[in-house]
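---------- Forwarded message ----------

FYI, see the Peroxiredoxin record below. Original note from H. follows.
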Amino acid sequence: MPGITLGDTVPNLDVETTHKNFKLHDYFADSWTVLFSHPGDFTPVCTTELGAMGKYAHEFEHRGVKLLGLSCDDIQSHKDWIPDIEAFTPGSKVTYPIIADPNKEIIPQLNMIDPIENGPSRALHIVGPDCKIKLSFLYPSTTGRNMDEVLRALDSLLMAAKHKNKIATPVNWKPDEPVVISPAVSDEEAKKLFPQGYKTAELPSKKGYLRVADVS
């Protein structure tokens, strides 16, 4: 896909939102942000997703992570839509800002385009405090997001950042489970990083590349 991708800096766009107007970098500053887009207001899948974001908001807040929505309609339409979102998902409160993009000028600059339908997509970027994209999801119009997977992936990124990317999380990893040590870390460095010790998997190849450690 053309446009910004993993490791790229999100453009510092001026945006109008349901809360106030701001530059994206000002919003991203000093925290992680989940930025998620929608093709339009009053659409079924998007209504369920924004409701889920509201219901999970406390989980993101607990992690010090901000939420920022984007939909390709104007501010008044967003405000009229919010009661539907909250009504459909009991316990949901849309306390996060939603960017207005009625002319579809912002969404291509954020590379939130569906290449199949050649239009706005339901995409999600996790943006670091350095305003760079750390992870992206792009969903087809037929498939809603899995919020537990968004949280799991976010927890993985936060864990890796905490350990300066010297660890990675294995398949189906969840918080409090063991991680694997990066191949870029020598055994000597690993012993210093993990004084409590680590385990090297015994594999047919006899190569000691799969090292597992408990971290907090």
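H. also flagged this: The longest strand covers residues 32-38.
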